[in-house]
Amino acid sequence: MKLQDKVAVITGGAGGIGLAIAERYLAEGGSVVIADIDRDAIDAAVARLARGERLLGLRLDVTDSASINAMIDETLRHFGGIDILVNNAAIFDMAPVLEVTEESYDRLFNVNVKGAFFTLQAVASAMVKRGAGGKIINMASQAGRRGESLASMYCATKATIISLTQSCGQALISYGINVNGISPGVVDTPMWDEVDALFARYEGRPLGEKKRLVGEAVPYGRMGRPEDHVGAAVFLASEDSNYVVAQTLNVDGGNWMS
Ligand code: NAD
Known about the structure:
This protein is of the alpha/beta class and 258 residues long. The chain has helices at 16-27, 39-49, 65-79, 102-130, 152-172, 190-203, 209-217, 230-237, and strands at residues 7-11, 31-36, 55-59, 84-87, 134-139, 177-184, 248-251. Strands 3-2-1-4-5-6-7 form a 7-stranded parallel β-sheet, with helices on both faces. Bound molecules: ligand 1.
């Protein structure tokens, strides 16, 4: 019960990695807000996890500051404060460098960078006002550790997340707020189904082949599963990580070492 009586907001919490973290935080005694743009997925997640008063589903669009503020206000009304933010919502897109469109660039940076930063800023402001510190976990990616020719813009957004984790981590630790990140590798979620379909289009592969190949290439021997990331997410949300500041932890089966 490492998160007893703690309140966690998980953006993009209605599916994939965010939902697995929500389930584990509840099992650790925490209260959870699943904040996601997909109302149907929120309702399905809340119905499945069924934790009554300790679980709240709120619609959030991280690209809209009014939506971020409304989500925070509702969370404070319901739970009284926020102890943990898992800044996890993101989208994927890819195209060869010579074919990247302004529309794709704007969409990726709006959700993955602007959305993540202003969600962090708004939740951190509420934490500072409350004066009880907090834990913020940004979801990065191995894609932020190195460029990839077909995913240049997504990689750039995730490199920015690692950089923001460093800057915000340094800036906020004086308020007792730890900002750290998790860097997954390749994880079997709805996002990777989209990635696989895009690789099929751009590399002329049958559907499913890229997914199988990247899984086989992981030193651990398989693709990540959403639940592979929950241990790190509990550690970075708990008092065990109080002296860990501005770091991004690779949880990727050995794909990247730094
Ligand atoms: P996913 O697509 O399964 O889940 C993402 C969630 O974010 C969805 O529930 C979606 O509705 C929500 N979302 C999208 N746009 C939003 C918005 N504007 N506002 C609020 N919510 C929004 O993805 P996932 O694979 O679980 O990825 C979770 C995180 O992990 C992301 O930050 C992703 O970049 C990162 N990541 C994933 C992988 C992977 O292989 N799947 C690898 C490395 C990093």
